């Protein structure tokens, strides 16, 4: 993950169900001026997904909050506090709407060629494995036949001596 971290925004994980944005704001305001607090909601339950983001105006305040609140307890739950990674937008910085329809064509063709090459190599490997398995079965069969011949010879020799 080579994404730059946002030094003013903290990820806060492990939130209890009772914690809302007001409570989260109140828990982090002692460390400095809070610019924004967000707790993303689950679309089906309309409850937060047990994590949130706190954005400070100053980097130093965010660092102090992270140092003090990581591992702290809030409403009976232990918090995980780290720097937040920026949200990734599909299609680059401006999103798919700002991209021409052919913008992804080169990488698509490269992926297709890589996939075809991978399938070709897998098919070659399967064919080689089948040949190897066939040779192994033939070798085992030849060894079994050799054992039967070797066993037949000593018995025949013993019978011949007994009859003499």
From TrEMBL:
<dbReference type="Pfam" id="PF00076">
    <property type="entry name" value="RRM_1"/>
</dbReference>
<keyword id="KW-0694">RNA-binding</keyword>
<dbReference type="InterPro" id="IPR000504">
    <property type="entry name" value="RRM_dom"/>
</dbReference>
<dbReference type="GO" id="GO:0003723">
    <property type="term" value="F:RNA binding"/>
</dbReference>
<feature type="compositionally biased region" description="Low complexity">
    <location>
        <begin position="154"/>
        <end position="164"/>
    </location>
</feature>
<feature type="region of interest" description="Disordered">
    <location>
        <begin position="136"/>
        <end position="164"/>
    </location>
</feature>
<dbReference type="InterPro" id="IPR035979">
    <property type="entry name" value="RBD_domain_sf"/>
</dbReference>
<feature type="domain" description="RRM">
    <location>
        <begin position="8"/>
        <end position="86"/>
    </location>
</feature>
<feature type="compositionally biased region" description="Basic and acidic residues">
    <location>
        <begin position="136"/>
        <end position="147"/>
    </location>
</feature>
<protein>
    <recommendedName>
        <fullName>RRM domain-containing protein</fullName>
    </recommendedName>
</protein>
<dbReference type="InterPro" id="IPR012677">
    <property type="entry name" value="Nucleotide-bd_a/b_plait_sf"/>
</dbReference>
<dbReference type="InterPro" id="IPR034168">
    <property type="entry name" value="PPIE_RRM"/>
</dbReference>
